[in-house]
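Now for a concrete sample entry.
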Amino acid sequence: MEETRYFTPEEWSEFRNYYRKVMVACSNIIPYKEIRQLQLTIRQAVNQGLYARNTHGINTLLHIMHTTLLLCEKIGAERDMVIASIIHPIVTCGHLSEAEAVKLYGDDTMKIIRGIGKSHELDDKRGAISNEYFKNLLLVFADDIRVVFIIIINNLSLMRMINNHPDEHFRRQVTNEVMALYAPLAHKLGLYKIKSELEDLALKYSDRENYNLIAKGLNDKKEYRDQYIAAFIRPVKEALEKAGLRFEIKGRPKSIYSIWNKMKKQQIDISGIFDLFAIRIILDSEGKSVKEEHNDCWKAFSIVTNMYPHENKRMRDWLSAPKSNGYESLHATVKGPEDKWVEVQIRTHRMDEIAERGLAAHWRYKGIKSEGNIDSLMNSVRSILESDNNDSLEKIKDFQMDIYDKEVFVFSPKGDLYKFPYGSTVLDFAFHIHTKLGCTCIGAKVNGSNRTIKYVLSSGDTIEILTSSTQRPKKEWLNIAHSAKARVKIKQALNEIEYKSAELGKELLSRRVKNRKIELDDALLMQLIRKMGYKTVTAFYLALGNEKLDVNDAIEQYLALVEKAHQEENEQRSADEYKFDNTTQELRNTDELVIGGDIKGVDYRLARCCNPIFGDNIFGFISSEGTIRIHRTDCPNAANMHERYPYRIINARWAGKMGTKYVVTLRVVGHDDIGIVTNISSIIGKEKNVFLRSISIDSNDGLFQGHLSVAIDDIAALNALIKKLKTIKGIKDVQRGAI
């Protein structure tokens, strides 16, 4: 190799050292023939300048070889993982084709290389690394857990290499990425030493003053700390054995980062930290009851605290009252040799299993957020790694990262990261960003290429929505959208379009009949609507607004009904001449109305245009069919009836309550807040003798308009209900309307 071209003398010495150690570690897993082929591949790449320093001056080949060595030391030497770690740059750049790589090193090696390559596609998305979904996306891209191992170890190697790097910004960038992503991943995988070293190095680069202060407080000598722990354990071990307990003891000095974190949280200096050392005593619990386990734990606790003075305030009993997540243990902080404080945790194997792999897994216990299926995956991998079998890495080879087949993670052009259900389309993305964007969406640029609204999103896609001012939502979109959120917004948009079209149709009819000086009779109009086959008034107006029904044709048919009604009238009677024939009228069972003086029991109908209820000021109107319709005096049609048909007006008043329920429609307008429907229903439900018959809500751009149909006793109860509804947070107005 041309070491003078690629290495400084110090780097060349380091490289040869790393290379020799890697070859020794791999001597039993990679045949000599393949090692020679690997050497040849590396040499050819070096000669062609494929391992040149990166833009930050990092020696690529030295970095790769150091990463590979750490993989062997920290994870274990596994053939495909080692080879992929070394050659992935020259496959990625195209010097070695995928077909050649498969031929030389096999499909499994190439699979890992593909995973590394896909994960590198995220390098230009670093702005989203703090997003909670970024970790999920990395795992999706990795596809194989060994890829995650390589990425974590690669960052550990990089953190070691940048200690004296001159670019402070670059060092902080790497540090931030490690703390946001790779240290938590290492923790979840049970790679605690790696996690601790990453955190310690991150503290060193971001706050070197405090790092040095703590390191000095710990004497900055790991060997001394290990000796101290051994000295602490020795008498404890002898006493436990003498008491007949079966156990194992694990001792560890706390990391510099964990001590700094505690100093920051408690706002104290290092002298105020009691437990700079931690000991875990794990008792053999096989075949024992819970009570017997607790007895053993307390016996061990007594032995330790009799041997070393303990701090009562720092004692924690999670045996008598386990944590809500199932965590059980005894914690004591004792003063060991040289008056140093040591934390001692005492538990059984069963408790330790729960703490490490169950509900109180270590990363949850320390407050790191649970992420559902990530935890399940990481827990399984941890179990494999910590097993005593020699084939752990062989098991990991078959461990597929296929847990995200129900989710996809995509980017916006600005680098924001979003999560969607698997199968979501460009249309889902558009409506997720903003309703207006979704309503005008005509497609998208996906990774720079034009795609239709039907394009199904893939993890890692960058989506730029394309819009047109002439685009409108269509019913077919409900078959394209996959997410519930987008479908709801599409339905709301379609309802809004229908509402506007219906309003347009209503305005069109009103304008045309006004121009022709035609007065519309509500009863005749409803008769026309039913005759033309429309189930609702809205459907009729919508047909007019969409020009599916010609407004002039509708008017002509209405006039025909008017003419027919006039022909059927034998004579035109005034209100004074009107005689009530109780033998021909169907009498109501109630006498709530007095009509035309003191006459009760007359057949009448409540007008739907104003929907009067008990207590309203009312009058009667004799329709062309001879039926008396009861209107409110403030009915929108009252003025027209008094002006054109004064001879049909008849006095009417309420006689007395007879227990009748009246149906009233209320129009409610307000802000589209979460729980608004629940709050409305709750208010109505608490009202005595008021019943909610139906409720419909339409929302648009943060506002909603709703119609409530309620059965109520009288006008006093209605006014009280309206007053209470207006007190609901978010309600802007409540008005009485027609049914």
About this structure: The first strand starts at residue 247 and ends at 253. Residues 8 and 528 are 95 Å apart (CA to CA). The radius of gyration is 40 Å.
